[in-house]
Design goal:
about 300 residues, alpha/beta, Spore Coat Polysaccharide Biosynthesis Protein SpsA, Chain A, 9-stranded mixed beta sheet, 11 strands, globular
Length: about 300
């Protein structure tokens, strides 16, 4: 499956991360010695289920790299347009592609095994849209100081994932475009999104009188797609960087991970270099080695008198 990374966002002066980006792309903000997007590329590069990586919004001049074949697509100006451009590039590479991964560039804690798990889990069924969620308990256990915003339903408090799977038709069929544009534009406001599904749904969301399953069923019926919720038991795919304290949190967290990895590597090298040589074992039936006489030359001369 191809992975499309959306990396076209440039913080404006009023954005909380503007002072960190220096007017450049948010994806290039430094996190523990690497551009934020590079962490995501490393995760995708190590994932067995990823074929190609398509970066929308950056150019090769940025110097970011990936172990997978990588393609750069220019920024189209809007998120939906960037997604469409990424999907079109995937189909250009292989017309038989049916599904793609949509990955945000601001989830640097993502790991390769998480990517593979998502693809395997989604491909158990044939739906149009797979949307990941993270329960509040999972997020706060892993990142207790993240201060995420949660959508509160009757049976769960959750936040959304920033890596999801869609069928390519979601970005190529005209009847979906206007609605997706509205939903993406309101992605930070759950109530506004729910109002597009129906004001009764928005009211139920406000009053916490709707369950997750009911919300998914209503939304899919209104949009006209087959959707499936993927519930994560790991917080990293849902831990995006929107605010300075989240950036600093992940800088510290990933720097610790780097130190642990370096310490393990040094320990492994030390064990290899200090390993004692193994004594050769004599084969069965082979004669025992003769003992070497330790009698000195002087002693031999005396014995010959």
């Amino acid at each position: 499956m191809d992975a499309i990374i959306t990396a076209g966002g440039i913080p404006r002066p009023e954005d909380p991360l503007y002072s960190y980006s220096h007017g450049d792309s948010k994806a290039l903000i430094d996190v523990a010695g690497k551009p934020m997007i590079q962490w995501v590329l490393d995760a995708l590069g190590g994932a067995k289920k990823v074929d190609n990586v398509i970066i929308v919004g950056l150019s090769p001049k940025t110097g970011v790299t990936c172990k997978k074949p990588t393609y750069f697509v220019s920024n189209q100006g809007r998120m939906l347009s960037n997604i469409v451009a990424g999907v079109n590039k995937s189909l250009e590479l292989n017309k038989k592609n049916q599904y793609v991964l949509l990955v945000s560039s601001d989830i640097p804690a993502l790991k390769s095994d998480m990517v593979d798990w998502l693809v395997e889990t989604c491909m158990e069924t044939q739906d149009d849209l797979y949307y990941g969620i993270c329960p509040r308990a999972v997020m706060e256990k892993r990142f207790p100081d993240s201060k995420r915003t949660y959508t509160k339903l009757k049976d769960i408090e959750l936040c959304g994932a920033d890596i999801n799977v869609i069928h390519v038709s979601m970005a190529t069929e005209p009847e979906h475009m206007n609605l997706w544009e509205s939903l993406i534009g309101s992605r930070k406001n759950a109530v506004r999104q729910a109002s597009m599904v129906g004001w009764d749904t928005a009211f139920q969301l406000l009053t916490r009188s709707i369950t997750l399953d009911d919300l998914v069923e209503k939304a899919c019926r209104r949009i006209g797609v087959k959707g499936r919720v993927i519930t994560w038991d790991q917080a990293e795919p849902c831990m995006d960087v929107d605010k300075p304290h989240q950036l600093e949190l992940l800088r510290v967290d990933l720097a610790k991970q780097q130190r642990r990895s370096s310490a393990k590597a040094r320990s492994a090298v030390k064990k290899t270099t200090t390993r004692k040589p193994v004594k050769p074992v004599a084969k069965k039936g082979s004669p025992a080695p003769k003992k070497v006489s330790r009698v000195s030359t002087k002693t031999k001369l005396k014995a010959g008198k």
